[in-house]
């Protein structure tokens, strides 16, 4: 029986990352996911993936702590050998993150540093470490936001860091092409998750307003995103490279 390909999803215990992990399993990939603090949620996702017939493991990783990356890679490599019968993965999905909401004029340096660490510096250097255990002909999927195309006050720092990731994606695709590693970035619009205390999901007026600005007449759900990420980790997407794919239902057209 052929070895299933393996995807690593950072921040895979909840929200968009959880749906990405489950969608990957539905595409017959094995999944390694990371979580920051909630091991119980991560273990629940692992159980759900195993229920779909795929292998899965979860490991703690704070993407903001770049000094922990070497030990994380060592742990991952050893457990790949014991749990997955390999020492390599095939796909990396840089999903982990959170948002500080602050208008530009009020944003402070700590908020800037936090956003840079989790949304740009973290993925930049974690990807470099993961390349040592990433198979040739594999892939990297970075996560951006519709907020790099249109503006919403309060998201200047977040949007700027995601814009940096979009440029980085092109450079990664160019420089990793010799290894036949594809690098793409997906840009969700407003999604009903628990981010920012569930403002899109739980604030009725906000939800209705965002839906009114979307061609398809609603805000996004996590399962609108995961399937696209999973598709990019299949052979059907083998000729998609260096692309920004917005998944927003036609927001702010």
Describe this protein's structure.
There is one protein chain. The chain is of the alpha/beta class. It has one domain (6-191, 221-247): NAD(P)-binding Rossmann-like Domain (Rossmann fold, 3-Layer(aba) Sandwich). It is built from eight helices and seven strands. It has helices at residues 15-26, 39-51, 69-84, 109-130, 156-176, 199-202, 204-212, 226-232, and strands spanning 6-9, 30-35, 56-60, 89-94, 134-143, 182-188, 244-247. Strands 3-2-1-4-5-6-7 form a seven-stranded parallel sheet, sandwiched between helices. Helix 1 (15-26) runs parallel beside helix 2 (39-51), helix 1 crosses helix 8 (226-232) and helix 4 packs parallel to helix 5 (156-176). The mean pLDDT is 94.
């Amino acid at each position: 029986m052929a070895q299933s390909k393996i995807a690593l999803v950072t921040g895979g215990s909840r929200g968009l990352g959880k749906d990405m992990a489950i969608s990957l399993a539905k595409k017959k990939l094995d999944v390694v996911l990371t979580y920051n603090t909630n091991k119980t949620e991560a273990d629940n996702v692992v159980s759900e993936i195993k229920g779909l017939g795929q292998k899965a493991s979860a490991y703690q990783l704070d993407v903001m702590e770049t000094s922990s990356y070497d030990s994380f890679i060592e742990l991952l490599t050893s457990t790949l050998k014991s749990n997955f019968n390999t020492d390599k993965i095939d796909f990396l999905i840089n999903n982990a993150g959170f948002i500080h909401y602050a208008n530009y004029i009020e944003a402070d340096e700590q908020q800037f540093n936090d956003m840079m660490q989790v949304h740009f510096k973290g993925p930049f250097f974690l990807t470099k470490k993961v390349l040592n255990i990433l198979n040739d002909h594999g892939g990297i999927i970075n996560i951006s936001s519709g907020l790099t195309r249109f503006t919403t006050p309060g998201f200047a720092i977040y949007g700027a860091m995601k814009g940096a990731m979009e440029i980085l994606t092109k450079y990664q695709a160019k420089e990793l092409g010799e290894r036949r590693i594809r690098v793409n970035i997906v840009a969700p619009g407003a999604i009903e998750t628990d981010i920012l205390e569930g403002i899109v999901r739980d604030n009725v007026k906000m939800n209705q307003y965002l839906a009114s600005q979307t061609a398809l007449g609603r805000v996004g759900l996590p399962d609108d995103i995961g399937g696209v990420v999973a598709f990019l980790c299949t052979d059907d997407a083998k000729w998609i490279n260096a692309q920004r794919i917005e998944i927003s239902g036609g927001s702010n057209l």
